[in-house]
Amino acid sequence: MNLDLSQFFTEYESLVAQVDAVFQKVSGNFASEVRCKEGCSDCCHALFDVTLIEAMYLNHKFFELDEIRRNEILIEADKADRKAYLLKKKASKEAGEVDHSEILLRTAKERLRCPLLDSTDKCALYSYRPITCRIYGIPLDIGGKSHTCGLSGFEPGRPYPAVKLERIQDMLLSLSNRVLDSVGSQYADFRLMHVPVSTALMTVYSDDFFGTGGVQAEAPIEQGTSEPGGKDA
Hints:
The chain has helices at 6-29, 52-62, 67-94, 100-109, 131-135, 165-183, 197-202, 207-210, and strands at 49-51, 140-142, 145-149, 163-164, 194-196, 228-232. By secondary structure, the chain is α/β, with parallel strands linked by helices. It has one domain. The strands form two sheets. The protein has a four-stranded mixed beta sheet. Strands 1-5 form a two-stranded antiparallel ribbon. The model is unreliable at 215-227 (pLDDT under 50). It holds the Pfam family CxxCxxCC.
């Protein structure tokens, strides 16, 4: 694919800088509550998906690593991808039997090691990590309810400023859709596509992937789907 994505990546990096600034402000105002520190990898074991622009950006930076390290990571990514698929399949089966909020709570408690973690629990692409990784340690407003890291010092029932995650997601999806417009993809499902980090690393974002390589291929299956009320596991 010959599309120059530098403009989109620059806009994404600008959004990342804004998010980092918010995190720094909150962590400065609540130094005893925000307990993120070097060596902590709690958020690196969470089950979450990223938007297309994040996936493509991470994939781009991934290929700047040397080949040996990439191959090591891809082995772990394959393992993580299989586990993520099984967890989502289980959640899908429970959709008609269990309350949606209960499914989200159970999913949040699942532990899935990020393939980018090395043997010392350091991220191979820390400087380029997704936005979810960057704001995990501060209160997040998700669907009108506040969620915090289980290792933080934020107390349930007390009011704290919470970042509205939906607003950030809307900006990420808008940027992702502009990428799709630029490549000319006709896959409607891609407009809301979210994938695990493992999938982002293993995917080849080519013309064939987007269905713009001359032969219209079948669209790939999509991988994804205030006062603190409590802490996430």
